[in-house]
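Fill in residues.
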């Protein structure tokens, strides 16, 4: 597991995992946890920018049928983030 808000890094690592998954499905977890740094969590960017980023990652990675989607941690922190 890595924590990163660098979209290119998240995409590259996930694509590498998908290529090496031997048929296992892979999802990408993204943090919006308040207590983590800006480099690890999108809390400081707010909900709208976080959603834009997650949708872009979902769009790129969904080309692979083994990709299961973007998982967001945590809903409580998401609801507390600025719009």
């Amino acid at each position: 597991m890595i924590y990163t808000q660098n979209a290119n890094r998240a995409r590259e690592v996930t694509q590498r995992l998908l290529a090496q998954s031997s048929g296992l499905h892979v999802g990408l977890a993204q943090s919006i946890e308040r207590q983590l740094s800006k480099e690890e969590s999108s809390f400081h960017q707010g909900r709208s920018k976080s959603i834009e980023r997650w949708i872009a990652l979902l769009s790129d990675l969904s080309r692979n049928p083994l990709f299961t989607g973007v998982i967001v941690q945590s809903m409580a922190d998401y609801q507390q983030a600025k719009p």
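Strands lie at 26-31, 67-73.
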